[in-house]
Amino acid sequence: MRIFRVEMGRGDVLRSTMTSKMPIAGVPGKAVRSRSRVAVALDAERMRALAEWTARTLETDSPVPFGAEIVHSKSGERLMRAHNAVAVENDPSAHAEVRTIRLACKKLKGFSLKGYTLYTTCEPCPMCMADALWAGLDRVVYGATIADANRFCRQIQIPATEVAKRSDMTCAVEGPVERERCLTLFTHPNMQRAFRTWATKRGKR
Q: Region 86-112: what's the mean pLDDT?
């Protein structure tokens, strides 16, 4: 059984109170207001829900630890979410973040996601972070780190904040959020078996 998960819709509402200022990741001299405890708690709640949704793949023939979701930054309404589909689509660029951004832009019939936030169960790789910047997302919020993922599978070990810093486009990068919960997606026995299969396939020429 192959899995190809995409989900959109649902009108969850995100409400937050803005307080003191803090710098935008990778943008010297610029500042945004820091989020209230309510907003921080909502980020954690949304990440838990995304991890739970992603965990459903672990009981299928195509388990993946990478899930992403795009929501409206002010209302919290979900626009799109999707899983990594590299193996299913035989597409090395089909990372969860890239797929979610592509599908969200198609839904909006435009290439700008200004006004939206991306949640992802793992820190975006440079490709995914660059895509987030080009899409104009307000924020990227991640769970596990690139270093965490690299314990189990290959990664380009450049932090998402570093990619943002080297860009003239603005996007706040925040994380890790619910790191331990997202790590369980990598350590699940079925996922561990899949990692070994991935390594074998990559070794073929």
A: 97
